[in-house]
Amino acid sequence: MGSPGVASVSLRHRYVHLTVLLSYQAELANLIGNTPSSFVQLETLGTANRHLKAIDALHDTARDPAIICLNDDVHSNAEKYVRPVLRTWLDRKWPHAPEWET
Fold it and tell me: What is the mean pLDDT of residues 48-53?
């Protein structure tokens, strides 16, 4: 059997580790929960136009999304119409590619 001091230190270390981990998870959940975000589905030309305009309308407001998720589940017959609208919107929103993307 090990000495009581070793078991005590080991348990205390695990408690501290767990406490730090839970604290980190809570902070991360708070960060994500309080980060303005927008999730939209682009299925047709109409939904693409409507959702992209809604995101644009939030610009320079407290709800301006820091995270934008575009679900491009475009119907096959609408793809040729949605693609240029999305490309134009992306080019206008972010005209310069970041260094890590080039």
Answer: 94
User: Is 56:48 a contact under the CB 8 Å cutoff?
Assistant: no
Check if the beta carbon of residue 89 is closer than 8 Å to that of residue 52: yes
Q: How far apart are CA 24 and CA 44, in angstroms?
A: 40
| Tokens representing residue 54 in the block | 């809604």
The conformational region for residue 60 under phi > 0 = left, psi -120 to 50 = alpha, else beta, is left
Q: What is the pTM of this model?
A: 0.62
Domain that holds residue 70: 36-102
The verdict on 14 and 43 lying in the same domain is no
Q: Which of 67, 69, 58 is nearest to 34 (CA)?
A: 67
Number of domains, the chain = 2
